[in-house]
């Protein structure tokens, strides 16, 4: 299983980052679950979490094939509500933060739409989770196909880890692309410079 950063580098469809329960009460922490095989279970009700941003055709490397993707994906980013509330207070992502990146097809023609694009079916889900006890580097990535109920952790040797470590504006997250997060982090002094 490859993370989206690695797929983009090879010219595949531009899955973007991504790029995740709070420290206040145990029930709030139960945003992600794992099965007996240590595989993450697909997050449920993530669309009820806090929406951070949507992108269209986002890619982090230049186009090298000589032609643009005629059907770039929409990227919707959600973070669990407890983590967002804690972030608003501190400007930092607490342990057990969970981000979900929902990648949806872009549709040009449908119903009465004559121009522009709207969102179609889910193509992929990526999860970026902070769990300081479970993961040696605190953060980990998981990648779900549209129908997968569970996923293995993406190996730490994949490019997404180094990319997020190097370019993440807030911890290892791409806060620079989430306007409300960016403004709070600036006020709290937690946003990395030059992002």
In short:
The chain is of the alpha+beta class and 195 residues long.
Report on this structure.
- The protein is of the alpha+beta class and 195 residues long.
- It has helices at 4-9, 26-29, 81-90, 159-167, 179-188, and strands at 40-41, 50-56, 74-79, 98-107, 118-130, 139-144, 150-151.
- The strands form two sheets. The chain has a five-stranded antiparallel sheet with strand order 2-3-4-5-6. Strands 1-7 form a two-stranded antiparallel sheet.
- Mean pLDDT is 82; it is low at 6-30.
Describe the secondary-structure layout.
Layout: H1 4-9, H2 26-29, E1 40-41, E2 50-56, E3 74-79, H3 81-90, E4 98-107, E5 118-130, E6 139-144, E7 150-151, H4 159-167, H5 179-188
Antiparallel strand pairs: 1-7, 2-3, 3-4, 4-5, 5-6
């Amino acid at each position: 299983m490859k993370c989206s950063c690695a797929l983009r580098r090879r010219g595949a469809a531009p899955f973007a980052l991504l790029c995740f329960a709070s420290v206040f009460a145990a029930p709030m922490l139960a945003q992600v679950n794992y099965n007996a095989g240590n595989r993450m279970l697909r997050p449920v009700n993530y669309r009820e979490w806090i929406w951070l941003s949507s992108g269209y055709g986002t890619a982090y490397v230049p186009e090298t094939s000589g032609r643009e993707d005629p059907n770039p994906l929409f990227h919707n980013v959600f973070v669990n509500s407890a983590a967002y509330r804690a972030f608003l207070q501190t400007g930092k992502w607490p342990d057990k933060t969970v981000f979900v990146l929902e990648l949806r097809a872009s549709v040009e023609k449908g119903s009465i739409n004559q121009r522009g694009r709207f969102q179609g079916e889910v193509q992929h889900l990526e999860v970026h989770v902070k769990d300081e006890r479970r993961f040696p580097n605190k953060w980990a990535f998981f990648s779900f196909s549209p129908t997968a109920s569970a996923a293995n952790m993406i190996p730490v040797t994949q490019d997404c880890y180094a990319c997020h470590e190097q370019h993440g504006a807030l911890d290892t997250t791409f806060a620079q692309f989430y306007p409300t997060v960016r403004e709070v982090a600036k006020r709290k002094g937690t946003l990395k410079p030059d992002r």
